[in-house]
Write a structure and sequence with these properties.
nine-stranded antiparallel sheet, 26% strand
Length: 545
Amino acid sequence: MLQGLVAVLVVYLTVAQNEEPFSLPTLSGDAFFADPFANTEAIGAAWKLSTSSKGDGSKFDGVWAIEANSANPEDLGLVVKSKAKHHAISAKLPKSVDFSALHSEQKPFVVQYEVKYQDSMECGGSYLKLVAEAEEEFTPEAFNDKSQYSIMFGPDKCGLDSKLHFIINFKNPVNGEVEEKHAKASSSIKEIFSDGKSHLVTLVLDYDGSFEMLVDQSTVNSGNILENMTPSINPSSEIDDPSDSKPEDWDDKEKIPDPMASKPEDWDEEAPKFIADEEAVMPEDWLENEPEVIPDPAAAQPEDWDTEEDGEWEAPTIENPKCTSGNCGPWTRPQIPNPAFKGRWAPPMIENPNYSGVWAPRKIPNPGFFEDKTPFASLMSITAVGLELWTMSKDIMFDNIILTDSRSTADDWAAASWNKKALKEQMAGSGEGALQDFLVYAKENPWVWVAVVAAIIFPFGLYLTCFRGNGEVDEVGEAKKTDKPTADDEDMPPLEGDEDEVVEDEVVEDEEGEVDAEVEEEEAEEEEAEEEEEKPVKRRTRKAD
């Protein structure tokens, strides 16, 4: 019964989900940038192709397009169309992301977007580069692999190696040098590259430096940029002296060959490692003259074989049935280790009397040393979002990109876009039956359980109510037939002749089994009156005798 009910609900909910009109996500709060790719005019408008080239001279000749998602023809996304090509496209932010201001306001920075590998990913990147603000104003046409970014975030895969990048370009406040800082490795995300579904990747970087990386709203990595980046945000206070070098007389060999040792006179370096076992004898069942293969005795020359044209016919060979144990052919003695083998002689090693220890350059104060306890506030401001990729796979779709200072805004954006899309894709591709589809839907829509409980309880409640009512009617009828006391008997007056006894809950019978005639008469009258009440409105009045 439950499974049937669930199946009906699944059909209804699936139809309702499919018939729900598509709508673009809307912002529930402020955002630095938010693009749901509402129309096919995005390329050339908000997003501009790079006309630059890579540092090695390679052109960005990869093709981009705005296309529909297979889950909904009205839902558009930015798609990489070429394989084995370099791609570059970017969009400038209406307003730069100022991390110093976010830190002062105690707000986080959140970057989130969808990626869908419509053609299983072989090798390539699908990450965002959040371009750093510079003295020279950013132009999308000049965007290339050398454009300095503040943060790089997103998936990357090649062969068996897959990762979710989170890289910070941190600028040294002392010497102005910029160095990449990499987050520790994330949990495995390899399944997202081959399942053909839309996936949501999110980076939440809080003002206190803590970060959380999520895939499909599940955490795959977390930490703090002050403690969990390589190399560390804050450099060492001392460094190796680059001008220092190891002295020529420095001996860093801990052991040396014993100069006093000499090879013993009986040491035979030419003795082989293995020799034939002279004690071995040929097994009795060994057939030295028996070939390992023989002509197939069951084979026959084809009738159409022409010796003049095809040559002399030869039967195909088969394994000799006498040699199934490998006991045919010339027998040789097995090899055994040579007890006289010693190998090449070398003098034994002894402690080096001149050992100077492990050499290391001397330490000097680090001229670029600094200590930043609030590195979030020191991150380089972001002026644009870009995709600069090389990939061996095509049809990688990007959608619903958002940069905001509110996690709830990003969550609401996802709820209005990815959550619906992912549910539709999962239900369309689960193929595991109605019950599984229902569980998938209920996971995303907990209110469904209320409907299920109501659908189960209502019929049972109705059933119990009806049968309980019937039970009350039967009790009245039973009381009429057997004189069983009922609730109405509580109001009966004391019987005549029995003033000392009051009838409260039951009809009193005398000890000899005779029922008072007057009580019988009164009960008969009450029964007759009740029967009259139960009759239809139209009834005849009985005439008096």
